[in-house]
Amino acid sequence: MDISILLLIVVFLLLLLTNVPISISIGLATLATMLVTIDITPALTTVAQRMAGGINGFALLAIPFFILSGILMGQGGIAHRLIEFAKTLLGALPGGLAMVNVISSTLFGAISGSAVASTSAIGGFMIPAMKKEGYDPAFSAAVSVTASTTGLLIPPSNILIIFSLASGGVSIAALFIAGYVPGLLLAAALMVVCAIYAKKHNYPLGKRSTLAEVFKAGLAALPALFLIFLVIGGILSGVFTATEAGVIAVLYALLLSVGIYREVKISDLANILLKSVETTAVVMLLIAASSAMSWILSYTNIPQDLSAAMLALSDNPIMILLMINLILLMVGTFMDMTPAVLIFTPIFLPIATSLGIEPTQFGIMMVLNLCIGLCTPPVGSVLFVGCGIAKTSIQQIVKPILPMYAAMITVLLLVTFVPAISLWLPGLFGL
């Protein structure tokens, strides 16, 4: 292995182990590698240029807008309306309350575009409700944690925008549409696990809702759900781009939260804007640092070398795809989604396409891999949020979350080896 790459890996891992923030770890590891590879002045200049260039993209403008719309939706009374609607549909089934958690998290995650926001908003309400009905707190947290990731596959999804950037221009519209079937399939798989687990532990059934109650709850949730159709419908029809869709999402979320549901006051907007700026800054720093690291990897021919090494190990497409999945699953346990996508897309996408995998399918496969990482220690941010809400430990949540992992990995394998799951809808729309 080249000394510069060995240095990159060692410095990065050492910084991570000493709890240095991941964006700083990536930036310092990249700088250290460049100092060894080239002279000090060009190294400093190159790092600065690559970081600035990494966030200088028109498509990235969508991210702060979707972040802002997600925060507006999160504080605008969306969560409990979605929960009430899901409860009228599924509450009377075995494990109905757990299924309500899954459906609510899926819908809210799709609207907000954030797994952490979904865990906080839906889990903050559903975990105490499930505990009150006799559900084990660790199981309640496991459901909230895993279900919150489904929204990252269903548009609007910031991580799919970042994959489009890292891949060199895979259509955002195609990625958005491609995420629907895998996202819903993942939700369905988690609901099956919930039903089996609830039946095994004799959890109570909820009351059956009347048609009038379903209609009333659906009507209350309809304005929130319309955002999904507004964004994706506008993109597909060519009325606006994905970036412009972010602006539309903000305006609609503002109208909904302030004007219709009236749960956000004008005086709250300053704090909401500040929170969105803070979140955007964190994301953009991650993108900038990861872009610099991605460049140094490319400069030292790591993608080509790794591709050659993997293809030398086996020429069996199934084995190579399984290896890619395994590496991404391991990466997801210690690295945030944004840098993982920016760093590993240029490495693995050429290998996947050489095996006949469509870039759109690979994007969904990669994001699903990293969604599993969000639920996995030691870095799984969503896992820690869920445990905090449920007041339970990582050790306690391990047993109930294992069947959830099994369901997620099953869906991952289906997405990997059944292209139609990702590509059927984009093909239907000519994307």
Strand-pairing-aware structural class: mainly alpha
**Overall 3D geometry?**
globular
Count the helices. How many? 21
Number of β-strand runs: 0
Mean pLDDT: 81
Largest sheet: none
Strand content: under 5%
Low-pLDDT ranges: none
H and E string: HHHHHHHHHHHHHHHHHHHHH
Domain module count? 2
User: Radius of gyration in whole Å, from Cα?
Assistant: 22 Å
Distance between the termini: 41 Å
What fraction, in percent, of the residue positions are helical?
over 70%
How would you portray this structure in words?
With 431 residues, the chain is mostly helical. It folds into 2 domains: 1-54 and 284-299; 55-264 and 300-428, no CATH class. It has 21 helices and no strands. It has helices at residues 3-17, 22-37, 40-54, 62-75, 78-90, 96-112, 115-132, 137-147, 158-166, 172-178, 180-200, 211-237, 242-260, 269-299, 302-313, 317-334, 337-354, 359-374, 381-390, 394-417, 420-428. α1 packs antiparallel against α2. 50% of the residues are buried. The mean pLDDT is 81.
Properties at a glance:
21 helices, 2 domains, mainly alpha
In short:
The chain is mainly α. The protein has 21 helices and no strands.
Q: How do the helices and strands line up, and which of them pair or pack?
A:
Elements: H1 3-17, H2 22-37, H3 40-54, H4 62-75, H5 78-90, H6 96-112, H7 115-132, H8 137-147, H9 158-166, H10 172-178, H11 180-200, H12 211-237, H13 242-260, H14 269-299, H15 302-313, H16 317-334, H17 337-354, H18 359-374, H19 381-390, H20 394-417, H21 420-428
